[in-house]
Design goal:
Elements: H1 13-18, E1 36-41, E2 44-54, E3 60-67, H2 70-76, E4 80-87, E5 91-97, E6 106-112, E7 117-124, E8 132-137, E9 140-146, E10 149-154
Antiparallel strand pairs: 1-2, 2-3, 4-5, 5-6, 6-7, 8-9, 9-10
């Protein structure tokens, strides 16, 4: 039987330096976080604010979103999102969390920016954090939500 030791790297500067860690893995309070520019599409700018970090070492980030479009902000209000964003021909794909603490339970959604509709594509409990997407052309997309699971979606 081995011995397991846990150290708070925030309180041990030499360990933090040895591990090349520039900040603690996870924060305890996110109230002071500010919205920061994330990306843009057409004339819409997207900003995000860190609301929570989770998983084993804070690798999964959970954000609230806002934009310079008030109709879109109505869709974002009270919802939480991950790092995944993919711009489609008519809108955006996002990973939406059920709450700040619901990881890994999420939904893949598509927001149509022409008519401000939110389509819940699939519910998933994929703990894989690196989602990717491919534009197959003609409004068809595949979204990889784990190394072995992908979702197909058509915007038309």
């Amino acid at each position: 039987m081995g011995i397991v030791m846990w150290a708070d790297t925030a309180s041990i500067p030499s360990l933090r330096q040895a591990l090349n860690v520039s900040r603690p893995f996870m924060k305890l309070n996110y109230n002071s976080e500010k919205y920061e520019f994330w990306t843009s599409m057409k004339s819409t700018n997207f900003e995000r604010k860190l609301e929570n970090e989770t998983a084993f070492d804070g690798i999964v980030k959970i954000y609230s979103l806002k934009s310079n479009d008030t109709k879109l902000n109505t869709l974002f209000d009270g919802k939480y999102f991950g790092d995944f964003i993919f711009l489609s021909d008519t809108g955006i794909f996002l990973r939406m969390f059920k709450s700040k603490t619901s990881w890994p339970n999420t939904k893949l959604i598509h927001i149509d920016l022409d008519n401000y509709s939110l389509d819940e594509v699939i519910d998933t409990s994929s703990s894989w954090n690196i989602w990717t997407a491919n534009d197959l052309g003609y409004g068809k997309f595949t979204i990889n939500i784990s190394p072995t699971e992908k979702v197909e979606y058509s915007t038309y």
